[in-house]
Structure formats: C-alpha cells, structure tokens
Design a protein that fits this description.
single chain, 131 residues, mainly alpha, two-stranded antiparallel ribbon, 78% helix
C-alpha cells in the first residue's frame, strides 16, 4: 500500500491510506477495547505506527531518487569517456579492434582497458547503425 506519492521531487503523504493502514494494523486491538478512552489510545498508537511507516516510505523514495540521479550521472560520464576514447582512435572501428586485440594478447591483460575499448567500439558501431 502506497502511503506516500512522489511527484516533481516532492513527497506527498496520502492521508486516507495512512488512516486505512492504522486501522488495518490495529484492527484486532480495537475489537477488544471496552471503553472510548481505550479505543482512542489504541487508535493513537496505531496511527503513530502508520505515520512511521509513511515517513520510512518517504525516506526510501528520496534514497531511490538520489540513487537514480547518481546512476544517470555515472552513465553519462561513462558515455563521455567512451566517446572520447573513440575519438582518440579517430572513430575507426578497425583501429579500436586492433587495440583491443593487442590488449587481450598481453601477458598481463588490463581488464579495465579492455572494457573501455569494448565500450568505445560499441559506441562507434551504434552510431554507424543509426546513420
């Protein structure tokens, strides 16, 4: 059950969902209450629990939003690096394949360099397919 919604970077609490969750959490406790004071105390207790869940959900939304922003920035930086590496080889797939072959035949292969070269090759081939 969504207790909060996120739109335009802002979290909004869904009050009816929070009340529904509070009554769902405390449904059995409310059934055994004999007086109005006991019911009010139980409702207050379970409403605090529901609000705690809603705040936790809002924090999780914020964490996910921040993680998505960081991931987009990382992917953009990776794409820029691939484009720069491809440009350093003159956007020539054969030159990148030769560099990739040279790197994989070395006695101590640098896996990070191989991954960068493969990413640059994929970027060049993807742009050639688009044209």
């Amino acid at each position: 059950m969504l207790l909060t919604t996120s739109a335009d970077g802002c979290n909004a609490f869904n009050m009816s969902a929070i009340m529904r969750r509070a009554f769902q959490l405390g449904r059995f406790a409310l059934q055994i209450c004999r007086t109005a004071a006991d019911r009010n105390r139980q409702q207050s207790h379970w409403l605090r629990k529901a609000w705690a869940e809603a705040k936790s959900e809002a924090r999780e939304f914020a964490r996910n939003r921040d993680r998505d922003i960081e991931m987009r920035a990382t992917l953009a930086a990776s794409a820029r690096d691939s484009a720069a590496l491809a440009a350093s080889f003159g956007n020539d797939p054969t030159a990148i394949r030769n560099a990739l072959l040279h790197e994989t035949m070395r006695d101590r292969m640098n896996f990070a360099a191989v991954a960068r070269l493969e990413a640059a090759l994929v970027a060049i081939l993807a742009t050639q397919q688009l044209h």
